[in-house]
Each structure stands twice: as C-alpha cells, then as structure tokens.
Amino acid sequence: MSSLLTQQGSDVRSYLGSLERSRWSRTEAVRPRVFSLAGRDWDLLDQVFAPPHHASTAVALELLGITAPSPVTLTGTLLEIGSGTGVIAVSAALRHCRTVVAADINPHAVENTALNAERHGVAHRVRSLHSDLFSGLGPDERFDTVVWSSNYVLAPTDFEYRAVHERAYVDPGYAAHRRYLAEARNWTTEGGRVLLHFSSRGDLAALGAIASATGCRLRLLKSTSVLEGADLIVHQLFEVVAG
Ligand SMILES: C[S@@+](CC[C@H](N)C(=O)[O-])C[C@H]1O[C@@H](n2cnc3c(N)ncnc32)[C@H](O)[C@@H]1O
C-alpha cells in the first residue's frame, strides 16, 4: 500500500469506491427532495448527482468565487458542462453572469436544472440543455467561461455505465476528459477561459498526459482540501491553456 493510501485510509482513486458512492447516493432513504446549500433551497430529482451527499458542489462554489474569494470571477456568459441539479449554473446567474447555458448528458439533470432555475427566478437567463459535452450547442455559440466540475475518477476504458447517475462519478479511460480538453477552447469568446474542477480522487498524471497530447496544459488557479469521510481530498481548479 502506498504511503498516500496509508495516510488517507482508503484508495480515494478507486473507481469501485466511487461506484459504491453512486449506489449509496441513489438509495431512496438518504435522498431529500429538497436540500439547502449556499443559503438557498434546491430541488433534487432521482438519478441526479446529490450535492448534500458529497463535498464537491460546495467546494466548486468556493473555487469559482461564488461563495468565497477566488482568482476567478464568473461574469458575462457561462457554459457549465455537467450542471446536475443546477446549483452552480443558477448561483452564477444570481451573481454576475448575464446568461448561462447549463448542459448535462443526464436528462434528469437537465430537468432538475430547469426546475431550480425556475425556483430562483432565473429561467429566462439559464438555458438547460441535454448535451454530451458540446454536442447540443449551436455552431456559433461562444462563452466567456466554460467550466466542468467533472466525473474525475478514472474507470477502466472498457467500463460500461449501468445507470446514468454513475456518469457523475467516473469517466472510462478519461474519454470525456480527453474530448473536453481537446474541444472546450473552441467554444470560448476571444479572451474567454476554460476551467476544470478536478480532485485527488482523479489521476492527475493521466490527465496531464492527455492535456499534452491534445496541445494544452493545466494551470492551477486554486486548490482546497476537504475531509470527505476519513479521506482528505484536494480539490483543484485548473485553467486549460494552450500549450
Ligand atoms: C460531479 S457531477 C457535478 C454536478 C454539478 N455540477 C454539481 O456540482 O453538483 C458531474 C456532472 O457531469 C455530467 N456529465 C458527465 N459526463 C458528461 C458529458 N459527457 N456531457 C455532459 N455532462 C456530463 C454528469 O451527468 C454530472 O451531472
């Protein structure tokens, strides 16, 4: 067992562990219909990544400067890939973003984001879109910021999802990360930024190799450590820059 594992008590990068977290999070008894985060109430639908079960949504709000000071201030137009319940997309619209496109491959997440945009009175400025990364966008759409709080745990290349909820947790062979790193910069305005929220549950060496292979590099903007159960997890906000 590596010293990291000894320190942390469990293999935080295990995809099987992440699938177990997904299974547990789908258990009806533990899922609230409504939860509170960042001073607001939010609807939670079945099959959608549940922010009250994991630290990552609250951490993303901090890293993105929505609930804490950050080198990043989201303004202008935002594309959020993987919006889930819509907490980040809606919170960004309630702060400084003029318009937000909130995309998710999970149709339940698309419905959930629309519900929360409605709940908080920003449905006219948050467009909830069913999309595999950028596939649902119009060819001329461009954004000041593109961000993905990703499914950063690496699963084997031949792993097949058994539930759409698992897409929030693991990425087989980092195929979706590879497409994100290769394509996201095509969707920014001139001077726009591509951001990625990753964590020590992911394989940063593998991600770095993919970045090099796709002609970009990862610039660390901010990181923070959070105790998740017995594990100290480092969450990182990267900017994807040409490279
Ligand atoms: C870790 S969850 C984050 C959800 C939400 N942003 C939050 O912080 O609560 C990752 C999200 O990415 C979505 N996702 C995974 N692969 C995707 C893809 N290829 N295209 C769009 N969304 C994807 C998942 O469905 C999930 O909602």
Describe the structure.
- With 243 residues, the chain is of the alpha/beta class.
- It has one domain: Rossmann fold (3-Layer(aba) Sandwich), CATH 3.40.50.150.
- Helices cover 27% and strands 32% of the residues.
- It is built from seven helices and eleven strands.
- It has helices at residues 3-8, 15-25, 56-63, 87-94, 107-119, 175-183, 204-213, and strands at 34-37, 40-43, 76-81, 97-104, 126-130, 143-149, 153-155, 170-172, 188-199, 216-228, 231-242.
- The strands form three sheets. Strands 5-4-3-6-9-11-10 form a seven-stranded mixed sheet. Strands 1-2 form a two-stranded antiparallel ribbon.
- The chain is globular and about 40 Å long.
- The chain starts with a helix and ends with a strand.
- Mean pLDDT is 95; it is low at 1-9.
- The chain binds S-adenosylmethionine.
- It comes from Streptacidiphilus alkalitolerans.
- One of its GO terms (molecular function) is methyltransferase activity.
- Keywords: Methyltransferase, Ribonucleoprotein, Ribosomal protein, S-adenosyl-L-methionine, Transferase.
